[in-house]
């Protein structure tokens, strides 16, 4: 389309996270349809996080621009660099070749996901030994070579980028004859799936090895707070894992609509050696077993257990005494985001499971989790 309408030389800037060498494909298409017009292709990947995108745009850690290492390519790089220089310090504007820019975005997301999977792997060991993952992560994060970011244990990472970009990286490695490297990055996703599977198993085993006919309240469906995005959210797989045991689920999320939740639970997902990825739930099942409410107290009323799956700030300030009084007893609270004070919840009367934290005495007596 660009080639069809262009009447003068153009700089085409690739912003999306794309497979490495996409710029070359764009370049070939434009060149073969150029009609004498010259095109320069730049890679300028986004490093914006949902919930903080505007702040990330105005105050980026870095801006990355990749272009051809030719006089024309470098001239195009400078033109885009001059745009960013209006508000970004020059030392934060990095210039590379095309392939380095494309691969850097994939690598950055893979490294961030790797940190989450690493601390989640440690969280399983913490539960087995009585250690506290928050204390371990704090100690590890104090190492200046490591730092504290992305070391919060949870039920698993989600969002539109991490899994997609790691699978992209795996594909590139396999295509280039690097199976060992591909398997290394595959393991980051496998640990993420293991964490979700482990959470589901913990819920079921804690509640006398069955949730059949019981009501579970799910607080939070988005993949993280301050967004209504449910792409690859851990809540999908946790709900599917529980639905297999004929549970009744009541879901509350302040930003995710009922239509979106129903779509997510009935959508077929790519099955890639994932222990938790089940067949899509039929619409009939979701109607019978899943309800969505716009009130946390309504969601938890009469429930046998609560699963916190998104770290919404409002979940910290709920009246948990009121919630506990309205629930079936014993009342279970499974905190998949370490969002609430477990000891305060135990004082109220909850049996609490927090990822990576020392187990509640009740849970120690229950069968081991697979």
From TrEMBL:
<feature type="binding site">
    <location>
        <position position="158"/>
    </location>
    <ligand>
        <name>substrate</name>
    </ligand>
</feature>
<feature type="binding site">
    <location>
        <position position="224"/>
    </location>
    <ligand>
        <name>substrate</name>
    </ligand>
</feature>
<keyword id="KW-0520">NAD</keyword>
<comment type="pathway">
    <text>Nucleotide-sugar biosynthesis; UDP-alpha-D-glucuronate biosynthesis; UDP-alpha-D-glucuronate from UDP-alpha-D-glucose: step 1/1.</text>
</comment>
<feature type="binding site">
    <location>
        <position position="50"/>
    </location>
    <ligand>
        <name>NAD(+)</name>
    </ligand>
</feature>
<feature type="binding site">
    <location>
        <begin position="47"/>
        <end position="50"/>
    </location>
    <ligand>
        <name>substrate</name>
    </ligand>
</feature>
<feature type="binding site">
    <location>
        <position position="17"/>
    </location>
    <ligand>
        <name>NAD(+)</name>
    </ligand>
</feature>
<dbReference type="InterPro" id="IPR008927">
    <property type="entry name" value="6-PGluconate_DH-like_C_sf"/>
</dbReference>
<feature type="active site" description="Nucleophile">
    <location>
        <position position="161"/>
    </location>
</feature>
<dbReference type="InterPro" id="IPR014027">
    <property type="entry name" value="UDP-Glc/GDP-Man_DH_C"/>
</dbReference>
<dbReference type="GO" id="GO:0051287">
    <property type="term" value="F:NAD binding"/>
</dbReference>
<comment type="function">
    <text>Involved in the biosynthesis of UDP-glucuronic acid (UDP-GlcA), providing nucleotide sugars for cell-wall polymers.</text>
</comment>
<dbReference type="InterPro" id="IPR036291">
    <property type="entry name" value="NAD(P)-bd_dom_sf"/>
</dbReference>
<dbReference type="GO" id="GO:0005634">
    <property type="term" value="C:nucleus"/>
</dbReference>
<dbReference type="InterPro" id="IPR014026">
    <property type="entry name" value="UDP-Glc/GDP-Man_DH_dimer"/>
</dbReference>
<comment type="similarity">
    <text>Belongs to the UDP-glucose/GDP-mannose dehydrogenase family.</text>
</comment>
<feature type="binding site">
    <location>
        <position position="231"/>
    </location>
    <ligand>
        <name>NAD(+)</name>
    </ligand>
</feature>
<dbReference type="GO" id="GO:0000271">
    <property type="term" value="P:polysaccharide biosynthetic process"/>
</dbReference>
<dbReference type="InterPro" id="IPR036220">
    <property type="entry name" value="UDP-Glc/GDP-Man_DH_C_sf"/>
</dbReference>
<feature type="binding site">
    <location>
        <position position="164"/>
    </location>
    <ligand>
        <name>NAD(+)</name>
    </ligand>
</feature>
<dbReference type="InterPro" id="IPR028356">
    <property type="entry name" value="UDPglc_DH_euk"/>
</dbReference>
<dbReference type="Pfam" id="PF00984">
    <property type="entry name" value="UDPG_MGDP_dh"/>
</dbReference>
<dbReference type="Pfam" id="PF03720">
    <property type="entry name" value="UDPG_MGDP_dh_C"/>
</dbReference>
<dbReference type="Pfam" id="PF03721">
    <property type="entry name" value="UDPG_MGDP_dh_N"/>
</dbReference>
<dbReference type="InterPro" id="IPR028357">
    <property type="entry name" value="UDPglc_DH_bac"/>
</dbReference>
<dbReference type="GO" id="GO:0006065">
    <property type="term" value="P:UDP-glucuronate biosynthetic process"/>
</dbReference>
<protein>
    <recommendedName>
        <fullName>UDP-glucose 6-dehydrogenase</fullName>
        <ecNumber>1.1.1.22</ecNumber>
    </recommendedName>
</protein>
<dbReference type="InterPro" id="IPR017476">
    <property type="entry name" value="UDP-Glc/GDP-Man"/>
</dbReference>
<keyword id="KW-0560">Oxidoreductase</keyword>
<feature type="binding site">
    <location>
        <position position="105"/>
    </location>
    <ligand>
        <name>substrate</name>
    </ligand>
</feature>
<dbReference type="GO" id="GO:0003979">
    <property type="term" value="F:UDP-glucose 6-dehydrogenase activity"/>
</dbReference>
<feature type="binding site">
    <location>
        <begin position="150"/>
        <end position="154"/>
    </location>
    <ligand>
        <name>substrate</name>
    </ligand>
</feature>
<dbReference type="GO" id="GO:0006024">
    <property type="term" value="P:glycosaminoglycan biosynthetic process"/>
</dbReference>
<feature type="domain" description="UDP-glucose/GDP-mannose dehydrogenase C-terminal">
    <location>
        <begin position="217"/>
        <end position="342"/>
    </location>
</feature>
<dbReference type="InterPro" id="IPR001732">
    <property type="entry name" value="UDP-Glc/GDP-Man_DH_N"/>
</dbReference>
